[in-house]
Amino acid sequence: MHPVIPYVLAALLFGTGVYGVTVRRNAVLLLMSVELMLGAVNLVLVTADVTLKQHVGQAFALFVIVIAAAEVGLGLAIVLQLFRLRRSIVTDEVGAEREPVAVSEDA
């Protein structure tokens, strides 16, 4: 297999993930887009490892998989807490309900 094909596929996956991160308002879809980008990075690392035969890309891919698993766990915990507090997982409303800071005019 020619190494250009996985690189182009990884670029398409990464571009789709970036589009999902910038456009989506749902927190779960946002996490899925980040996972798509991490999967594209894994594809690039493994393809580079196969073509260059240095056996470093697989180790980096393993680290990316571990980071992705930790990101999913932490991200889902944040999404669940956000849903418990607001009954919505729309990311546009995350910082909207803060109380205004009272400024005293005595100073």
From TrEMBL:
Keywords (A to Z) from UniProt: Cell membrane, Membrane, NAD, Quinone, Translocase, Transmembrane, Transmembrane helix, Transport
Localization terms from the record: Cell membrane; Membrane
Any matching Pfam family: Oxidored_q2
GO terms under biological process: ATP synthesis coupled electron transport
KW Membrane (keyword) present: yes
InterPro entries in the cross-refs: NADH_UbQ_OxRdtase_chain4L/K (IPR001133), NUOK/Mnh_C1-like (IPR039428)
Membrane topology per record: Multi-pass membrane protein
Name of the protein this chain belongs to: NADH-quinone oxidoreductase subunit K
Organism: Actinorhabdospora filicis
Gene: nuoK1
